[in-house]
């Protein structure tokens, strides 16, 4: 595997030191730069665009938070992958980071294997959400015991729901086509319809929609 150059963004020295220690023996990953806030991260990506492959991004930081930094970086450098690593597990922060362009969201109490799994999945073109982050979204959606299920305002067809569930399970278009006995072109059409009906901007948005409207079984 080609070396992956990582930018680490967190305003606490001890956190950055800890992540560096977790990754120092991981072959193929190298932290080549560090930033203490979002503005520094944006500046580094501008100055070293050709070098940065991946960013581990905190959210709550001075000068510029991780959500705004992610938005600016993804607009200017869409090829850079971003993983949110934070203590903030509220649904609003998860949704805001996904909307800004992050491909994954894990909490700082995650262990090393979760961090490695998240980086690897995102580099493979997938999205990754830790169990804690997913649970936080679900708990926020059902926090009121009398709250009714939100339903499916997009009125998806049964086939679209099948495709959506397989997307949430991180299957590729080719794998979905094989499982449903349809062509990859048909899967592409269903994916476009899903984006249009749900108003999602990308796969992460589809995942968020599916969780919010309880269209998939996360067990």
From TrEMBL:
The domain of life for this entry's organism is: Bacteria
UniProt domain Response regulatory: residue ranges: 5-123
Which is a Pfam family this sequence falls into? GerE
The chain's coiled-coil residues are: none
| Keyword Transcription regulation found | yes
The record's annotation in PROSITE patterns points to: HTH_LUXR_2, RESPONSE_REGULATORY
Instruction: Give the residue spans that cross the bilayer.
Output: none
Note whether Transcription occurs among the keywords: yes
Q: Where is the HTH luxR-type domain?
A: 149-214
What keywords tag this UniProt record?
DNA-binding, Phosphoprotein, Transcription, Transcription regulation
Which positions does the record annotate as the modified residue 4-aspartylphosphate? 58
Q: What is this protein called?
A: Response regulator transcription factor
Q: Which organism is it from?
A: Fodinibius salicampi
């Amino acid at each position: 595997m080609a070396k992956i150059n990582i930018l680490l963004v967190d305003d606490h020295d001890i956190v950055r030191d800890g992540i560096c220690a977790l990754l120092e023996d991981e072959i193929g990953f190298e932290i080549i730069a560090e930033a203490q806030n979002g503005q520094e991260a944006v500046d580094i990506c501008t100055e070293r665009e050709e070098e940065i492959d991946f960013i581990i991004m905190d959210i709550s930081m001075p000068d510029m938070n991780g959500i705004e930094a992610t938005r600016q970086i993804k607009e200017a450098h869409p090829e850079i992958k971003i993983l949110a690593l934070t203590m903030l597990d509220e649904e609003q922060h998860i949704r805001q980071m996904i909307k800004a362009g992050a491909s994954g969201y894990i909490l700082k109490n995650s262990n090393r294997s979760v961090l490695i799994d998240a980086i690897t999945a995102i580099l493979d073109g997938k999205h990754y959400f830790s169990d804690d982050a997913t649970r936080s979204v679900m708990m926020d959606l059902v926090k009121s015991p009398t709250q009714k299920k939100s339903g499916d305002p997009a009125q998806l067809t049964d086939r679209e729901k099948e495709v959506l569930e397989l997307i949430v399970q991180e299957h590729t278009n080719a794998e979905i086509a094989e499982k449903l006995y349809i062509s990859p072109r048909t899967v592409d059409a269903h994916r476009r319809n899903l984006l249009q009906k749900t108003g999602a901007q990308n796969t992460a948005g589809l995942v968020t929609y599916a969780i919010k409207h309880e269209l998939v079984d996360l067990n």
